[in-house]
Design goal:
The complex is a heterodimer of chains A (156) and B (726). Chain A is mainly beta and 156 residues long. Chain A has a single domain, classed as Beta Barrel (OB fold (Dihydrolipoamide Acetyltransferase, E2P)). Helices cover 13% and strands 44% of the residues of chain A. In chain A, strand 10 and strand 11 form a beta hairpin. The radius of gyration of chain A is 16 Å and the shape is globular. The termini of chain A are far apart. With 726 residues, chain B is an alpha+beta fold. In chain B, 40% of the residues lie in helices and 21% in strands. Chain B has 20 helices and 22 strands. In chain B, strand 10 and strand 11 form a beta hairpin. Classes of the chains: A mainly beta (156), B alpha+beta (726).
Chain lengths: 156, 726
């Protein structure tokens, strides 16, 4: 996923930053379709723990991923104050449950560092880079790695 | 017949699209000339469009189009196989040919003769192009003389170039109120099927002045009367401007359950002989106008001529070419989809509004409450209309296919009995439209190659008349359309030999029967020994497969030597509509397809028996049926549902096994739109798809077949565990 960074060249990248529990994350704003409040989901049987269920997004069935649980953090118990970020990657639309959305930031590629190798293999897979300043550290989420796996296309 | 006109108009609409695709394709070829980068798929696509126009035109006996497009596609075929090079000069000829083809189509549509000279010159050019190739094979198989069809075969007898009839001015004027005499005799089961003739009469009364007279003669004494059995018959008189078709449409609801006889007599003074007493035997398939419910808004005004018989419609078409034949609009599918979604939101928004009104203690009788009720009705009406834009029964498609079968059998010289099943199956409108071409190909192949000639059938101990069967239905969460013939089956050695000869497979390849059958789907494969107007260019089956795949479906072949071949098209439910039973499973709302539910049972505790610690069976009459607790199988709860309160849905699988699905309660029964779960999430075991209920919540649609399989393997585990424990 590093080539995604290279492709950006020198242009400023706009990122949406959000909190999951105590940690700050961000994702490319181009991936974000909308941000909405928590609504009750329809549970999916036999789903992994981080799949909370599905919601109706204007006629589309959209799965909701508890990002905290997906990243191995303490799962979020959703309340009305929690937020769902609807992201679109390719043909797939997914909602991510996060604690709160903070702001939109412009970042030049030079400010983005590769994820530190010190982290455990598992967590590093979800991060495509980090941005650190005096106040905080932002982890750039690799959306593709946290999407639910869709059906393998059947071929006759 | 109006059905024929409808189908023909559809053909012309398709021609528009095909011609557009043809021009696009030619432009692509032209663009590729300078750097010599020809995409064979483009040439293939161009070839297919011309081929499709030819095929359609042949069905309607539009000989000028057929003759021209045959020459046209011969050149394209040679180009496809590399025998004619597409250079600038050649492509220019092709462009001109495409233009001329468009003219021919337009001429056929408006029934105006076209100057033959231009066509002849182009034909000569095309033939010259084809002549460059080593061999020219363009035998034009004569179009069968469609006028020779039997007089009872109204559809077949249609001939677009017929001499214009004199138009009866009486028929063209203002609608004339006529008196219809209707006799209706109901079968005993009418009430049991949930019908009430009163509703029919109300609808009739809305069309004009209605008098109803009930015939009570069949009624027994009051003591012996069974109120659930309908023994009444009625005589009705209706004075109305409506057409007979409108009337029949009303009676369509009781089709098969009631004998309906409609006699029309004109109230006008200048009634002609042909306007007298047109009997409408109800067993005949009603005209498609009546079944084409999918777009009520687009339906043409009912023909105002007093006769609903074939000649009148034909006469109309001839005499009034200026009138718009049928005003339909082709709308972008995405637009319809977003409309459906927006309307869904509207309905949800409405329920939110009424909820907040009642929360705010606004009296229901107040002005705002009344307006909201109106709003609710309007929203529901819009939703109904919008939903019906998409779903449509396959009846018209099947009727169109029946025509294809008739004509193909005539050309092939084979006698064919055509059977259909599941005409009421509703499929997405676009899917129906896009099934026309693949089904046409499959049916023509079934007749042309599948069925044997009558003498060979006799020799094989079969009836000389072959049977081709077209069926549709919902199965395991998919729509399955099958075309089967009782012919000789696939000649596998021959198929393999041809594939080897055409260089499609290696000669020494070992293939299973099924793999050999699937060779038919390879591009460029054709077993036809001769090129005919109808099939055998090798475009058939690969187009079928790619078309079906584009719809997200699969095609399967099942062939038994000597017994016949079945083509099975399985389409996803994504856009289809399904009749579902809405149930409560441990607090979650789920939908069970009604087609698989045999009956619902509120079980008597004495009929329930435990087998081992976890398995439960219910005694249904004399059979023991295993119970699947849906709440447990979907892990919504750990404890089985309360036995005293549960409801059992008895379902039947494809293998005719019966299972009882235990749910907490039945909430509702309704049509639901199927939404795919797989696009954004993936497959969930036991779940066919999802749907969105009126309150905006998503409910999962259960796949009873898969659920039963899950329970089956689950109980195996359970029994192993109990065996280990004991």
């Amino acid at each position: 996923m590093t080539d995604a960074l290279d492709m950006q060249g020198n242009a400023t990248r706009e990122l949406v930053s959000f909190a999951i529990g105590e940690q700050d994350f961000c994702m490319d704003i181009m991936l974000v379709r909308e941000i909405r409040g928590w609504t009750n989901v329809t549970m999916l049987p036999h789903a992994p723990a981080h799949i909370l269920g599905v919601i109706n997004l204007r006629g589309a069935v959209v799965p909701i991923v508890d990002l905290a649980a997906r990243l191995g953090l303490e799962p979020i118990t959703p309340t009305e104050r929690h937020v769902i970020i609807i992201a679109v990657l390719g043909d797939q639309t997914v909602g991510f449950l996060v604690s709160a959305v903070s702001d939109i930031i412009g970042i030049s590629p030079s400010e983005i560092q590769s994820p530190p190798r010190a982290t455990s293999e598992n967590a590093a897979d979800f991060i495509e880079g980090v941005i650190a300043d005096e106040r905080r550290m932002l982890r750039i989420l690799n959306i593709a790695s946290v999407l639910p796996r869709t059906r393998v296309v059947e071929e006759a | 017949m109006s059905s024929l006109d409808d189908i023909k108009q559809t053909f012309f609409l398709e021609c528009e699209e095909l011609l557009e695709a043809l021009n696009d394709g030619l432009a692509d070829i032209e663009a590729a000339i300078p750097d010599d980068t020809f995409d064979t798929e483009t040439i293939n696509a161009v070839f297919r469009t011309v081929h499709s126009i030819k095929g359609g035109a042949a069905s309607f006996g539009l000989e000028p189009i057929v003759r021209f497009s045959h020459c046209f596609e011969t050149v394209l075929d040679l180009m496809r196989s590399g025998k004619v090079r597409p250079d600038t000069t050649n492509v220019r000829v092709l462009h001109r040919a495409a233009d001329h083809l468009a003219d021919l189509v337009a001429a056929s549509r408006s029934d105006t003769p076209l100057d033959a000279a231009a066509g002849d010159a182009l034909l000569a050019q095309l033939n010259a192009l084809a002549g460059h190739a080593p061999q020219v094979a363009a035998p034009v198989v004569p179009i069968p003389d469609v006028t020779s069809a039997g007089p009872d075969d109204g559809d077949l007898a249609f001939l677009p170039l017929a001499i214009p009839f004199d138009f009866d001015p009486a028929g063209a004027g203002e609608p004339i109120p006529r008196t219809f005499r209707i006799e209706m005799t109901c079968s005993r089961e009418l009430f049991a099927n949930g019908h009430d003739p009163v509703h029919l009469f109300r609808e009739l009364a809305a069309l004009g002045d209605l008098t109803v007279e009930a015939d009570l003669s069949a009624l027994p004494d009051f003591d012996a009367l069974d109120p659930l059995v309908c023994l009444l018959s009625w005589r009705l008189e209706l004075l109305s401007e409506a057409s007979e078709e409108d009337l029949r449409e009303i009676f369509e609801f009781v089709e098969g359950l009631a004998q309906v006889r409609i006699e029309a007599s004109s109230g006008a003074q200048d009634a002609t002989g042909s306007q007298d007493a047109v009997e409408a035997p109800h067993e005949l398939p009603p005209p498609p106008v009546a079944t084409f419910d999918a777009d009520p808004a687009a339906r043409p005004p009912a023909p105002e001529t007093s006769e609903a018989d074939a000649p009148s419609t034909r006469r109309e078409a001839k005499a009034a070419p200026g009138r718009a034949p049928k005003s339909t609009v082709r709308v972008d599918l995405d637009l319809v989809d977003s409309l459906i979604n927006i309307v869904g939101e509207l309905v949800i928004n409405q329920s939110v509004l009424s909820q907040s009104l009642s929360d705010a203690n606004v009296a229901h009788r107040s002005e705002i409450g009344g307006s909201l009720d109106e709003y609710k009705n309007l929203a529901l009406q819009i939703q109904e209309c919008v939903m019906s834009l998409r779903a449509q029964s396959v009846k018209q498609l099947f009727q169109r296919m029946a025509r294809i079968v008739r004509e193909t059998s005539e050309i092939a010289g084979k006698s064919v009995a055509f059977e259909t099943d599941g005409e009421d199956t509703e499929i997405d409108k676009t899917v129906i439209e896009r099934l026309i071409e693949p089904l046409t190909h499959i049916l023509r192949n079934a007749i042309d190659h599948g069925l044997e000639a009558p003498d060979r059938r006799r020799a094989a101990g079969k009836t000389p008349t072959g049977t081709v069967r077209l069926s549709a239905g919902h199965r395991s969460g998919r729509v399955v359309i099958e075309v089967s013939d009782d012919g000789s089956g696939i000649n596998r050695p021959k198929v393999q030999a041809i594939a080897v000869k055409k260089g499609l497979i290696a000669p020494d390849l070992q293939l299973s029967d099924n793999e050999i059958d699937r060779l038919l789907f390879l591009p460029g494969f054709s077993t036809a020994d001769s090129v005919t107007d109808l099939s055998g260019r090798g475009v058939g089956m690969d187009v079928v497969r790619s078309e079906i795949q584009k719809l997200g479906g699969r095609v399967g072949i099942f062939s038994h030597p000597g017994k016949g071949t079945t083509f099975s098209i399985s389409l996803p439910l994504t856009l289809a509509v399904l009749d579902g039973m809405v149930v409560d499973v441990a607090g979650q709302t789920m939908v069970v397809p009604i087609t698989s539910v045999v009956e619902t049972i509120r079980p008597d505790l004495s009929d329930l028996h435990m087998i081992g610690a976890t398995s439960q069976v219910i005694k249904v009459r004399d059979a023991l049926v295993p119970i699947v607790d849906l709440g447990m199988i979907f892990s919504y709860r750990d404890e089985p549902v309360d036995r005293a309160r549960m409801v059992i849905l008895l379902v039947e699988t494809e293998q005719s096994e019966r299972w009882g699905l235990a749910v907490d309660r039945i909430i509702d029964q309704r049509q639901v739109v199927i939404k795919s779960l797989e696009g954004n999430y993936g497959h969930v075991d036991g779940v066919a798809a999802a749907t969105i209920l009126g309150d905006g919540k998503i409910a999962l649609i259960i796949d009873p077949e898969e659920t039963a399989r899950m329970a089956d393997s689950g109980s195996a585990v359970a029994s192993l565990m109990s065996a280990a424990g004991g």
